[in-house]
Amino acid sequence: MNVMDSALVKLTVQGVLADSSPNAESQVVLLQDEGKTNTLPIWVGTAEGMAIRLALEGIIPPRPLSHDLIRSLTEHLGLKVAKVVVTDVKSNTYYASIYLSSKESEQTVDSRPSDAIALALRTRSPIYATRDVLERQAPEAVDPWLKRLNAKEFGGAV
Amino acid sequence: MLTQMQVRGLMFDPYTNAYIVILRDDGNTEMLPIWVGKPEASAISFAMEGIATPRPMTHDLMKTVLDAADAKVISVVVTDLKENTYYAKVHLSYEDSEYSIDSRPSDAIALALRAKAPIFVTDDVIRKHSNEEMDRWLENLKPEDFGKYDA
Predict the structure, then answer these.
(1) Is B71 contained in some domain?
(2) Which residues in chain B touch residue A100, judged by CB atoms under 8 angstroms apart?
(3) Domains of chain A
């Protein structure tokens, strides 16, 4: 493990939830580390939320959706999605990088986390966040929201 | 045979709650409306109007991935129409080979506009489209439509 890798925390997608606040059109992707000590909620658009949910549930649509097409493009070009990383958060906007590797080289591509996650689930690539991002998400903003979520949305599933 | 088409516009269809991309050939003799979903419609509309979003949208990412591999979109082709569903192919050149990749027309068009690649439709699709359109028109005729011009 190199220095860069040690600064990364592996996360898995726990689910996609609708944000119940009145003005929100968006959905929330919940990412969690293996020890379940860190939770990272990322707000995504409706279409991206759907793309993530379909992959989580293993639903194969009759026609390829946008992220299925991206996966198909990478396969044809012999590119492997090595990993995706949530790299930064600035003014509530999360940033991600997609690591593509080919025979000769490795490249990173800038992406929204929603697209990166939707692609990673389709290519079975690991998802990481930097420690920095996990530490910098404002707990005072997220915790009450998560508590409310636990009580309501998770209640039915337990 | 292929006919090159331009994206002429986007319309909202209130009956199906979907968007319609209007493709037209340069001679304005053929017109092909393709129903697309809302996110694909905005992806097409952003590219048509040259709007740059603060963060890359899904089809911008698609283009970036191709650029990273040094792959080029040669063209996109609407290849088939079956039971009201259009099929398309994205034609790529990469290293010394060419690839055809199955796609929905909406994704293919959104990508073509970003890659400045030409959009084609097969003559077969144009012919099937006119047939299906005729069928639909006949199906939608109501009894009262027939008597309309008698009086």
Answers:
(1) yes
(2) 65, 68-69
(3) 3-145 (3.10.690.10)
pLDDT of residue A155: 40
B64 contacts A109? CB cut-off 8 A: yes
Yes or no: say if B32 and B149 are a contact pair by the CB < 8 Å rule: no
Residue A140 pLDDT grade (very low, low, confident, very high; cuts 50, 70, 90): low
3-state SS class at B68: helix
Contacts of B59 in chain A (CB under 8 A): 66
pLDDT in tens, B54-78: 999 999 999 999 999 999 999 999 9
Q: What digits encode the pLDDT tens for the residues A16-44?
A: 998 777 666 679 999 999 998 889 999 99
Inter-residue contact A82 to A100 (CB < 8 Å): yes
Q: Please count the structural domains in chain B.
A: 1
**Residue A77 in 3-state DSSP?**
coil
In this prediction the pTM is: 0.87
Query: What is the CA B99 to chain-centroid distance, rounded?
Result: 20
Range of the structural domain that residue B89 is part of:
2-142
Residue of chain B minimizing CA distance to A79? B69
What was the ipTM of the complex prediction? 0.87
> Is B147 domain-assigned?
no
The residue to which tokens 């340069």 are assigned: B26
Looking at residue B125, which CATH number applies to its domain? 3.10.690.10
Q: For residue A24, give how far its alpha carbon lies from the nearest alpha carbon of chain B (Å).
A: 17
B26-43 pLDDT, tens digit each = 998 889 999 999 999 999
The reply to whether residue B68 touches residue A109, judged by beta carbons under 8 angstroms, is: yes
